[in-house]
């Protein structure tokens, strides 16, 4: 199992009601097997409305949404001003290419034991355009080389070990055993 360090939590966000954006907090508490304490998307089974409508018994593979702060600078080049929590993420990071990590990677957030396991990519929806018109095309696109869909709106994870997460916490990355599986939408 490989391991390297290098990231930091820049913001944490949660919301107890269904809303696209999530207010920043001084800290969030991760609950093993559930998600962010008090967040509307916490739970053992799916909480996203469209997924509940399809099958409310599906396991919740989207307990904690992480997004790399570097995306905000990228979309700013196209005139979009985005701040942490505004795209619905729970944990905003800097210094780790979250999108390049394989499925099953563990992220240890801070020194309090909080650990999430990456389950896949967020599949962004039309709500992003309702937040800022035209933003969706900057977080979902196609590879010029292969035509494959590229999703940049963060990654989803489940909580393996609970704990408190705060801005400034360091992130330790533990890669799963090889062969690595690339992230797919969840």
UniProtKB/TrEMBL annotation:
Family annotation (Gene3D superfamilies): PK beta-barrel domain-like
MOSC domain sequence ranges: 22-174
InterPro entries: MoCF_Sase_C, MOSC_domain, Pyrv_Knase-like_insert_dom_sf
Coiled-coil boundaries: none
Top-rank taxon: Bacteria
SUPFAM superfamilies the record matches: PK beta-barrel domain-like (SSF50800)
Designated name of the protein: MOSC domain-containing protein
Protein species of origin: Streptomyces kunmingensis
